[in-house]
Amino acid sequence: MEKIILSADSTCDLGQELKARYDVHYYPFHIILDEKDYQDNVDITVKEIFAAYYDHKALPRTAAINVSEYLDYFQDWVKAGYDVIHLNLGGAISSAHKNCVLAARELEEAGAPGKIYPIDSFSLSTGIALQVIDAGDMIKAGLPAGEIAQKLEQNRPNVHASFILDTLDFMRAGGRCSAVAAVGANLLSLKPCIEVNNSDGSMHVGKKYRGNLRKVLKSYVKDKLAQYPNIKREHIFITYSSIEPELEALVRDTIQETMAFGEIHSTKASCTIASHCGPNTLGILFETRG
């Protein structure tokens, strides 16, 4: 059996229990806040990011893992003969995958006995985590790293990621929507669904819901679970930046009332994800059968 390391960018939001279950290694993105460089979920938290914005309007910037960092991260494994399957934040929204590919090529050209398999997830957050779980299951089944990488890339169109935004303030502050759009959405109580395009990893606005968050989240869950006829029932994620416990429970109850899943996982979004979408963002993420 091959020696395989399973790894991912910190943006996969897998949660500690699943991270341990599948023996997943992380490398953190950078969060720059008040001109200080932090490591995502290592020495800064989502709560601190939101507090900085509301206390003194400081908005963080995010920075991808660079080539040098990937080289340092991977080199001991590949020199010891391990193959590494590493899942990246979608290349359409981050340079992390490009940097990972460059690091993998450099190590291969240096003659390292192990090989890096960088996978562009075409997704974010627990859209990546679903692929990590698939990779972990294939490793346990004894598949070689090259075959696992190929199957992961073939399965990307079956990963469905979307989120409901409670406020557009963070997207406006980060230059991702106009002040007019943000004010208009807030006045009209509009809460857009942000959808990830699983053919390239880009994002677009889907349905715009109207009403309070409780009403919107219930409708959103029902809409998404009715959208696809062949949903895989093993895993579904509820992932949020921050949310009231009763709203998380509402989403879980709505899922259970609508469809039976083997495991419903609730996880918190990483700082990288949360800093772009703001508080009270919540999504459900799942796979379909190809």
Strands side by side in the biggest sheet: 10-9-8-13-11-12
Q: Whole-number average pLDDT?
A: 91
Radius of gyration: 19 Å
Structural class comes to alpha/beta
| Distinct helical segment count | 11
Between the first and last Cα atoms, what is the distance in angstroms? 28 Å
Shape: globular
Count of DSSP strands: 13
Descriptive tags:
alpha/beta; six-stranded mixed beta sheet; 11 helices
Q: Your description of this structure?
A:
With about 290 residues, the protein is of the alpha/beta class. Helices cover about 40% and strands about 25% of the residues. The chain is built from eleven helices and 13 strands. It has helices at about 15-20, 45-55, 65-80, 95-110, 125-140, 145-155, 170-175, 180-185, 215-225, 245-260, 270-275; strands at about 5-10, 25, 30-35, 35-40, 60-65, 85-90, 115-120, 160-165, 190-195, 205-210, 235-240, 265-270, 280-285. The strands form three sheets. It has a six-stranded mixed beta sheet, with helices on both faces. A hairpin with a 6-residue loop joins strand 9 (about 190-195) and strand 10 (about 205-210). It is globular. It starts with a strand and ends with a strand.
Summarize the structure.
The protein has 290 residues and is α/β, with parallel strands linked by helices. The protein contains eleven helices and 13 strands.
